[in-house]
Each structure stands twice: as structure tokens, then as C-alpha cells.
Amino acid sequence: MQTTLPLASVKKLGEFVDQDVRLRGWLYGGRSSGKIAFLMIRDGTGVVQGVLAKSDVEDEEMFQAARKIPQESSIIVAGKVRQDDRAPGGYELLLSHVETYSEAGEYPITPKEHGQSFLMDHRHLWLRSRLPHAILSIRSSVEFALRSFFDREGFTLVDAPIFTPNACEGTSTLFQTDYFDKQAYLTQSGQLYMEAAAAAFGNVYCFGPTFRAEKSKTRRHLTEFWMLEPEMAWADIDDVMQLAENMIASVIGTVLERNAADLATLERDPAKLEAIRPPFPRITYAEALEVLAKQGKTLAWGDDFGGEDETIIANSFAKPVFVHRWPREAKAFYMAPDPEDDRLVLGVDLIAPEGYGEIIGGGQRADSLTYLEEQIAAHDLPPEAFEWYMDLRRFGSVPHAGFGIGLERFVGWICGTHHVREVIPFPRTMNRLSP
Amino acid sequence: MQTTLPLASVKKLGEFVDQDVRLRGWLYGGRSSGKIAFLMIRDGTGVVQGVLAKSDVEDEEMFQAARKIPQESSIIVAGKVRQDDRAPGGYELLLSHVETYSEAGEYPITPKEHGQSFLMDHRHLWLRSRLPHAILSIRSSVEFALRSFFDREGFTLVDAPIFTPNACEGTSTLFQTDYFDKQAYLTQSGQLYMEAAAAAFGNVYCFGPTFRAEKSKTRRHLTEFWMLEPEMAWADIDDVMQLAENMIASVIGTVLERNAADLATLERDPAKLEAIRPPFPRITYAEALEVLAKQGKTLAWGDDFGGEDETIIANSFAKPVFVHRWPREAKAFYMAPDPEDDRLVLGVDLIAPEGYGEIIGGGQRADSLTYLEEQIAAHDLPPEAFEWYMDLRRFGSVPHAGFGIGLERFVGWICGTHHVREVIPFPRTMNRLSP
After folding, report:
1. How far is A316 from chain B, CA to nearest CA, in Å?
2. How far apart are CA A298 and CA A307, in angstroms?
3. How far apart, in Å, are the Cα atoms of B95 and each of B21, B28, B40, B60, B78?
4. What is the DSSP letter of B7?
5. Would you put residue B170 in left (φ > 0), alpha (ψ -120 to 50) or beta?
6. How many angstroms separate the most distant Cα atoms in chain B?
């Protein structure tokens, strides 16, 4: 083969129309007759069909060998790029040369249906298949779009620690580790740290893995998942809703632009995503109860919503919906009280459409030292563990607010994926710790 | 106060020259006479001097009150923006209104010298001080610049798992946690997972926290630190060096542009960073031994370098220096053998200038199944734990290469910071797990 030929990637074939190029990748699949072979070649950036005519190759031996290359063998090919609007991606390769770099053994993932457990046992290989590839390409876009959004908006990234010293609310859902002569716990949220950082930097966010040792096998739970948590000084619950809706619209806009082919692979209707434009509807907890009651689901005042309730609420709106101003007992101790109704706190959840449930939880934080001390006592929390957190109210307390968005639930919704384990490269659940 | 005044941030005062604005922040410091008070106001985006003349405020009571506001109280001010080239940042505020939102208690961090331990105990407040603020602003820029670089270069972000199932090389530096009925270990590197991902996506990277339970108290060690690990399919050791030097030059360029004021705060000479342009010198391990010998430091062939050795090598060059082609025994089992000298493997380290030591380690990976099996046996590693990793050689093995860069060491070098604990928001070391 002429190694002087330009090296192309599937994604950039359009830059080489009618030119001869080299391409390196893996054999994704193929079929052949006595005179012509079709090789599907993937290189990580996409899949292209290579057409190998017996009459076009250097020698017949190469043609016969190419027909027998096992699936997932690594190959180096050369050929001319032809525009073909019927081809997926718009191009095909008229091959003149095919060589195998490393011949694959019998590939365990075949076109037949495999169970989820088998596929997840082979996650290190399954990543190469079309659906996981499309989902994780979207995940990558979403993560960068999120970071780009916060960078543009002037937020400072402040990484929250993973090791935390206290198990304030019990150890039942905490992962615990020996930490030299102490015990440490793996973080469930960076929020308290972000409150400290907001007083130093104004607007901040963290974005990293968080952990939950829940004995839960639902399709919405992972033991290890990524969470983004912005926090703003001098901000209130309305600022949270505005930031959240702008963020979601911005990220979805990026995915529609960058990942159109991936959405098509997933058969995800882009029109459903295009409709996600601010403002999103905003209803109070009390109004949400009415929505549920109208659908025949009566909850007691103070109840939190289950997954089914969230779906009923979501289905009553075309866009994600904010539910704000919750009963105090349904939310965490640090939520700011509603100045207009002391049964309520200024918490807000965002419920995604199509049954994807709560993807954001946040709100305004209590900035009064006295109120916070009362709440810590009322929740039987150890005040000494919160001394540093109280310092934020002792030294220049300001109204401040923020939220957390679970990456996997967000990406799951965008992709239209049933189970969150499919939207993280190497999922960790109660029953899965490998590969 | 007229709440209709536009709300400014310190960073954006230049957009409001000669206009009246509102500003919300914290009192960073001040001094006053009977007729005039100077208030240093910080808002997270910067610090501005506010000038309050008794004759300019609405009433004398406000002037007297403003003089007595304790440090770090949260305040809301109004005033006219004046350009003043002598002022830090180029602007000052001629104040007409000052009100306290929350009066601070006696602030524990005073202008006097505090010990590191005291400051780190108050890290939640110390973040507000000039030096930590500058360092962590640079850290935020570096992280986004790194992600932007890999996004531009077409790399897919593939998050590596934190929980891993095996303690292949012993548990001595691993953090361990109960994982339901199993044991899990916290990741020390995402590399093996990135090798799987590179075969699916071509060029990939992960960037997240990694963990090391080392009983080490040196200035270069943290138990929890962030690491970025790119991996490229169809790539070799030269590609690694080229990618690494382009990445470093790109990130430093961004910091010079975005964080000039922070570098000035740190008294970090930008000329030293401006000089960091590719190509970086590339020497073999054997050549590095000669460099050391010339400086009177004789190492046996096969020895790894200590911190002092790295400094000697670094000081022999004006830029970061690559040391490549290491003795097999000095490097990990997965390194590709050097086809030209079977005592060597295709590993490469990058040593930063000015004594900041190794910031990158990487190289080309072994892609031969047979060789890898031999190495796993030779290192007494349990082959069953590497079954999935061997699959990457069974099914379409390709030449591939990558590296890991430790974020804190990189940022420490950029900032000229002595101890890596200063470049992470909430450091975790052998003796520190809080706040």
C-alpha cells in the first residue's frame, strides 16, 4: 500500500471526495459474493461501507483474504472516497487495498439478541456497538456542553472533595473507607462545599462522581454517578430556575447540532428535544398536588412524589416542569424558609418529560445562622460537624441558591434510554462492579 | 438606595465607566479618617476600592456606620465607576451608599501570619483570600482549557469508573470500601478502561479524581487528586509526546490570556510560562543518566529517578523535558517493548521545569497478547483479573498509546506553588480529611 496516501477518519471523509485515502479501523461486519465484497469499517468516529471489487484489487489473494477477515479484526485499508447520498454518513470507500493488522478471535457479541447482563459483562467490547457508541458520544457532548455553559456564564469550577469526614445523616447509604487511623465517607453531594466556594468566588460549580450505597435496583439508580452542582451568591430560587432552564436548553441545543447522527441511531425524535425551550412551566407543590388529584392520585399534604407521581405531573406539560415551594418536612434542613408561608421552604425540583423523573433538585439556602441552628437541632444532626458550614453564616452570610443535576438521568432523557446504567461507560450498581 | 441602578461585578466595572452602579460583595478591608473612608470590596470576581467621602453620602450616620463594618461582612453598595490606572484592576468606586446585609463576627483570618494548619482548618473561609483565590481561579481555567483542548482535537470523554473490583498490585496504597457483599477499591488510574474505550472511539480521555493511600507527607502528595488520561488508538510513543506538548502549550497559553491578574497576584513571572512552546526536548533514559552523571549524580542502569534527580535533569533544559525509552523493570507491565532494544519499553515521562518534577507519565502500550500474558505472569499478577483487558488484544488489537497528567502538579507548576495541597480546593492528605 502507498503509505503516502492521506490518512482519513470516517467522520472527515467529506474532506477527501474522489481522493484516495488510507483508513485504519476495525471490521464491523461484511458480506460478499464471488466478485464483490462489502466491508463495514468502523474507526471510532463512525462507520463506512467499503466496497471491494475483485477486479480492483492488486491481487486475487487479497480479495479472498478480505472476505474471510473475522469481525472486529483491526484493519488498514486504502481506497477512493465516493459521495453517495444513500450511504449512511453520505460516503463510501472504493477499496483497492485491505490488510489485517490483528486478526480477531471469535467475537462474543453477535447480531443475535444478548441479555443485558451478558452485554454488561462484555462492556469493554460492547462500547464498540452502535447503540452504546451513540449514547456515550452524546454523554461526552453533554458533559462538555455543560462545562462550556458554566464557563461562558462566568462560573468558577471548584472541585468538591470525594472523601468527607462525617456521616451526619447515618451511614445507611454511605460508602465508608478506612482512612489511615480514621473513617472517611464518599461524598453524596458537594453542595455544602459549593456554598463555601460561592462566598469566595460568587458563582461556582462542581462536577464529579458522587456515591450512594442504596440497595436499589430501579432503572434510575447507580451506586456511582456524576453530578453537577452550581451555587450562586446573592441569588434566590428564581435565579435557580432561570439558570437551570437556560442550561438545559443550551445543552440540548448543542446535542441537536453535534449529535444528530447519534440521535438518529437511537431513533430519538429530535422534535421532542427541539421543543425544550425556556421558559419552563413553574408550579408550586400545592399546584402539583392539584394536578395529581385531577388525575385521580390524591396525596397527603407533605408527601414527597414517587416516580409514578412525577410521570403524571410531567405528562401534564409539554416541557420539563419546575415544582417549587415544598413542605419543610419533605426537604433538607438547609433549605431557606418561604417568607410568605412558614410551612414551606424555597426548594425546587425539575421533572423531565416522558417519565424520566426528577433530574434537578435545588433551591435557596437558609442564610440565617439562628434558623440553621434550629434546623440542625430539629433534625438531630451533630452541630460540631456543621461548625464550618455555620461559619458561612457567621462571616458575611448572603442569600444564595443552587442546584444539583444528575448527569445520567439528564443524558438518559436526552437519549430516550430506559435504564441509567446504559448512559455511563462502566456502570456500578448493587450487583455490578466489573469490568 | 436606587435598586434600579445596574448591577455590576468587579470584573465588569469597565463596562460602566462614569456610571452609577450597584455592587454586592464582602468587605475585604478598609481604612478611614474623619472625612473619608476607603473600603476594599470583593465580590468573588475581583477586589475594588470604594471611596466614601463623608460629604457624598446621604447622611452622616451611614458614613459613621460604614467605617465600622467588620471585615467579611456582606455589603451592598452604590457608587460611580471611575477609571484610575493606578488602582488594581484599573477602576475604583466613588461610593454614595453602603449598607450591610449581614454583619460578620470577628474574622479568624487576619493580616498576621497564620500557620498552614490553621489556614487549612479554615479552608472554607481561606478560599476568600487573595492567594487561594488566584490559585483556584487558575485551576478552574486549566481544567476548562484541558477539556477544550481535547474537545477541539476530537477526543471523546469517557468517564472511568471510581469503584474497581481488583487489588492487583496489593492493597498497600489502595483505599478499600465495603461494596454490599464484596470489597471495592478506589481507582488509581483509568488507563485500562481508556484502552477499551480507545478501541471503541479512537481517541478518548477521562478526567476525574483518583486515590492513593500513600503514607507520604511530601509536598507532592495528596490522597485524592485529579488526573487526566488520554488514550489514542493507532498511535505510538511519538504521538504521545506530540499530544502532550501541544496540550501543555495550549493550556498555558489560555492561562496567560485569562489569568494575567492572578499570575501577578502570585508574583509568578509570565515570561517563564511564555517560554513553554513546543517542541520540548526529548532525551532517552540513557541520555538522562548521562545528564545526571555530568552533574555528579551516578545512577545504576535501571534505577528510577528521585525528586532530586528530576530537578537536576529539569535544570539542564529551559523547557519541560521528555525522558523516553526506559528500562523494562522501571515501568509497568503493560508498556510496549522497544523493538530496537529489548531491555527497554516505550514509556515516557515529562519532567516540568523549576523542580516541579514528573507531571506526565505514559507511553505506548503492549498490543501483543502473548507478550502481555508473559508480562502478567512475570509480575505475578492474577490473570483472571485481566481477562477483559486481554480481550482488547484478542479482538482487534491495535498499536495504542496515552498518558496521565496529574492536575495538581501541573497547576502547581503554573502557579509556582510550593505544595500541591494549595492547588486543590479542599485538600485531602494523610493527616487532613476536613473541612
Report:
1. 35
2. 15
3. 10, 16, 12, 13, 6
4. B
5. left
6. 86
Question: Which of B122, B208, B391 has the CB atom closest to A209's CB atom?
Answer: B208
CB A399, CB A235: distance < 8 Å: yes
Phi and psi at residue B318, to the nearest 5°: -85, -15
Q: What is the dihedral of CA B340, B345, B346, B350, to 10 degrees?
A: -130
Question: Domains in chain B, start-ordered, CATH in brackets?
Answer: 10-102 (2.40.50.140), 123-423 (3.30.930.10)
- Digit-by-digit pLDDT tens for chain A (435 residues) are 667 899 999 999 999 999 999 999 999 999 988 899 999 999 999 999 999 999 888 788 999 999 999 999 999 999 999 999 988 889 999 999 999 999 999 999 988 889 999 999 999 999 999 999 999 999 999 999 999 999 999 999 999 999 999 877 777 899 999 999 999 999 999 999 999 999 999 999 999 999 999 887 778 789 999 999 999 999 999 999 999 999 999 999 999 999 999 999 999 999 999 999 999 999 999 999 999 999 999 999 999 999 899 999 999 998 999 999 999 999 999 999 999 999 999 999 999 999 999 999 999 999 999 999 999 999 999 999 999 999 999 999 999 999 999 999 999 999 999 899 999 999 999 999 999
Compute the distance between CA of residue A56 and CA of residue A22 in angstroms, rounded to an integer: 16
Q: How many alpha carbons fall within 13 Å on the CB side of residue A11?
A: 14
d(CA A23, nearest CA chain B) in Å: 11
Calculate how close chain A gets to B164, using CA atoms only, in Å.
Answer: 7
Strands A47-53 and A36-42: antiparallel
Selected residue of B10, B99, B120, B124 to mutate for chain A interface (largest A Cβ count, 10 A): B124
Task: Kindly indicate whether the ipTM for this predicted assembly is greater than 0.95, answering yes or no.
Answer: yes
Task: Read off the pTM.
Answer: 0.97
Closest CA relative to residue B273, chosen from B379, B413, B401, B178 = B413
Beta carbons within 8 Å of A343's beta carbon, 6+ residues apart: A327, A328
